[in-house]
């Protein structure tokens, strides 16, 4: 029989006592409370002060079957201008091209960004800055260096900036000048709005965007950055993804993620607009080449036609009676045609004079007759009248909510005055040109009336000359018709691709940080940290905490446990006979009686490894 007590250690597989584990951790509930509160607070700070990232998307329909011919199947017989099949991968490459992205950023004027400096976080203020920066692109600039702006008054600003080991940037070329290394750059001074701020490595001016009261910008700090367009283009390319919605469709989804949602929306809308316009320009370029080719052919045929026409005119001069023999080209037909042109010009002239008089006598657009209603197709005139009508409408709306001294109202008034002046000048120019045309038509009518009075007769052979003339004229007319067809088709040309959905946010909530997930992680960490700490502490603890620690390593019977006594005396049984400690001693005494009951004399040894563990107290 093995008398070694340690040999009686149970070899059975230990089971996990969930209840005891929970009871062990519950003793440290205050650790869990403090840890959870702290972790949730850190999660709150992270959600509050982390720059949010928003996701915006737009969708494009890519027509992979493009078989256009400028609206006509063939401009010249047997000639098909262009056809082809769009490769969806190529279109994705075009949308993610460096040149298209760079052009988009330049169109949107993203070369300067504006920020508001807060107590903890600095945020970008897109389209809401109280000032804008006008950069001289012909001058060297300092990029990626923050310029701190403090608005002192309606006229003054304070600018501060500092940088080391910089390179001068050329905005026109988009490159850094290696030979122009800036060891130390510093700027701190007061300047005026609209004043050019010039140094060897910078030149710009600050323009105030909106009227602001002093309390609006008092103690507010702003920052602006001049960006390197090449680097900025690369950053936008990294933030932009283009993918197919479905492998069997030709719809592309463009996605852009940034800290400013409005900036992403504008970027995606401009990117798709330029992409579609680039495709349309490519189609129009082919149309231009077609028209150019036809024009070259017209030049050649015009020379031949002019030569034959000269011979015909020479013949008519020698045989004047031939004029009336060709009725469709005769003098009477010419006079009739000129009279019609004269009537149209006189009618238009009356319209121009009445419009000019109306502008001088009235300050509204209620009774202005549209030029198109009179058959006048002058684009500039139409645009100016439309612009004037729009300004009058804006003024009417402003009059409902603002006084005449309001700055916006005054601005509209100035725009109306400028537009009316431009419109009056344009009408005067049109009237002058119309008067010149009328004078010329009257002169030509007078010339034909003289010929009518002298009807000639002649019988010379004209067959060869007339045949050549008709042939050249027929070719000339045919080419003119084809050129007109090409021009009409070009005017009605549409892009191969189409925007299905304009740019919009995928969600009103930022995609990063995800607040709910952050709080869940904070809660889990708040629970996991105390569990880990308690477990690690217990793992490295080599002291006996309770009797189960002894029972796990030995089969020696435990006859009792004595609680820690906080009484001042060691004689607990005498002074506190009814205490829990006294009852523990009585229980041990009773259990000792059953140990080696056959022996009359029993010797008990009380020992421990170090002092202060209760040997004297128990004795």
Give a brief rundown of this model.
This protein is of the alpha+beta class. The chain has 16 helices and 15 strands. The protein has helices at 18-26, 29-49, 88-95, 98-108, 214-217, 229-239, 261-318, 331-361, 379-401, 407-452, 463-491, 515-540, 547-551, 572-575, 580-593, 615-618; strands spanning 54-61, 65-66, 84-85, 112-117, 122-124, 131-135, 147-151, 156-170, 175-192, 196-199, 202-208, 221-226, 240-244, 251-258, 498-505.
Q: Topology, please?
A:
Elements (H helix, E strand, L loop, with lengths): L17 H9 L2 H21 L4 E8 L3 E2 L17 E2 L2 H8 L2 H11 L3 E6 L4 E3 L6 E5 L11 E5 L4 E15 L4 E18 L3 E4 L2 E7 L5 H4 L3 E6 L2 H11 E5 L6 E8 L2 H58 L12 H31 L17 H23 L5 H46 L10 H29 L6 E8 L9 H26 L6 H5 L20 H4 L4 H14 L21 H4 L1
Antiparallel strand pairs: 1-14, 1-15, 2-3, 4-5, 4-12, 6-11, 7-8, 7-12, 8-9, 10-11, 13-14
Helix pairs in contact: 2-12, 4-6, 4-7, 7-11, 8-10, 9-10
| Shape label | elongated
Q: In percent terms, what proportion of residues is strand?
A: 15-25%
> How confident is the prediction overall: mean pLDDT?
76
What is the helical fraction, as a range of percent? Answer: 40-55%
Number of helical segments with 4 or more residues = 16
Rounded to the nearest angstrom, the radius of gyration is 47 Å
SSE-based structural type: alpha+beta
Number of strands: 15
Low-confidence stretches: 5-13, 66-86, 324-329, 452-464
Read across the widest sheet, the strand sequence of neighbours is 5-4-12-7-8-9
Biggest sheet character: 6 strands, antiparallel
Q: Distance N terminus to C terminus?
A: 33 Å
């Amino acid at each position: 029989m093995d008398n070694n007590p340690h040999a009686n250690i149970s070899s059975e597989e230990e089971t996990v006592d969930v209840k005891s584990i929970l009871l062990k951790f519950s003793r440290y509930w205050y650790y869990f409370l403090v840890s959870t509160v702290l972790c949730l607070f850190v999660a709150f700070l992270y959600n509050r002060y982390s720059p949010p990232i928003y996701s915006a998307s737009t969708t494009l329909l890519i027509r992979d079957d493009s078989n256009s011919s400028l609206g006509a199947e063939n401009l010249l017989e047997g000639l098909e201008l262009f056809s082809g099949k769009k490769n969806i991968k190529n279109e994705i490459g075009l949308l993610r091209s460096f040149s298209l992205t760079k052009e988009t950023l330049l169109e949107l004027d993203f070369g300067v960004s504006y920020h508001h400096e807060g107590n903890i976080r600095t945020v970008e203020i897109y389209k809401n800055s109280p000032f804008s920066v006008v950069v001289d692109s012909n001058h060297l600039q300092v990029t990626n260096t923050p310029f701190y702006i403090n608005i002192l008054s309606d006229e003054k600003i304070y600018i501060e900036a500092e940088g080391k080991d910089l390179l001068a940037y050329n905005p026109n070329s988009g490159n850094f000048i290696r030979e122009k290394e800036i060891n130390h750059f510093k700027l701190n001074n007061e300047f005026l709005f609209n004043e050019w701020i010039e140094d060897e490595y910078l030149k710009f001016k600050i323009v105030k965007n909106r009227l602001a009261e002093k309390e609006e910008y008092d103690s507010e700090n702003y920052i602006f950055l001049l960006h390197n367009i090449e680097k900025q283009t690369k950053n936008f390319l990294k933030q932009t993804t283009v993918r197919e919605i479905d492998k069997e469709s030709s719809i592309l989804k463009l996605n852009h993620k940034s800290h400013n949602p409005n900036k992403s929306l504008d970027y995606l809308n401009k990117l798709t607009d330029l992409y579609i316009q680039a495709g349309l320009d490519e189609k129009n370029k082919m149309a231009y080449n077609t028209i150019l080719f036809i024009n070259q052919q017209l030049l050649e045929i015009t020379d031949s036609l002019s030569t034959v026409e000269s011979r015909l005119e020479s013949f008519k001069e020698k045989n004047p009676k031939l004029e009336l023999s060709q009725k469709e080209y005769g003098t009477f037909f010419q006079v009739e045609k000129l009279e019609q042109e004269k009537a149209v010009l006189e009618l238009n002239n009356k319209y121009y004079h009445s419009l000019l008089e109306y502008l001088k006598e009235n300050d509204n657009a209620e009774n202005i007759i549209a030029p198109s209603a009179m058959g006048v197709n002058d684009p500039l005139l139409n645009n100016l009248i439309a612009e004037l009508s729009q300004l009058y409408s804006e003024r009417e709306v402003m009059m409902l909510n603002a006084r005449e001294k309001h700055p916006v109202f005054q601005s509209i008034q100035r725009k109306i005055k400028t537009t009316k002046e431009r419109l009056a000048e344009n009408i005067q120019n049109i009237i002058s040109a119309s008067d010149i045309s009328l004078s010329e038509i009257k002169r030509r009518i007078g010339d034909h009336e003289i010929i009518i009075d002298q009807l000639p007769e002649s019988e010379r052979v004209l067959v060869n000359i007339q045949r050549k003339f008709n042939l050249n004229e027929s070719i000339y007319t045919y080419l003119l018709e084809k050129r007109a067809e090409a021009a009409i088709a070009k005017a009605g040309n549409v892009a191969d691709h189409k925007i299905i959905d304009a740019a919009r946010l995928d969600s009103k909530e930022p995609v990063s940080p995800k607040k709910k997930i952050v709080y869940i992680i904070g809660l889990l960490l708040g629970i996991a940290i105390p569990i880990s700490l308690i477990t690690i502490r217990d793992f490295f603890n080599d002291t006996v905490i309770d009797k189960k620690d002894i029972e796990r390593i030995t089969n020696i019977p435990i006859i009792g446990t004595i609680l820690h006594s906080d009484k001042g005396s060691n004689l607990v049984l005498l002074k506190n006979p009814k205490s829990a400690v006294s009852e523990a001693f009585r229980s041990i005494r009773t259990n000792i009686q059953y140990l080696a009951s056959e022996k009359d004399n029993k010797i008990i040894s009380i020992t421990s490894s170090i002092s202060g563990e209760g040997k004297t107290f128990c004795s």
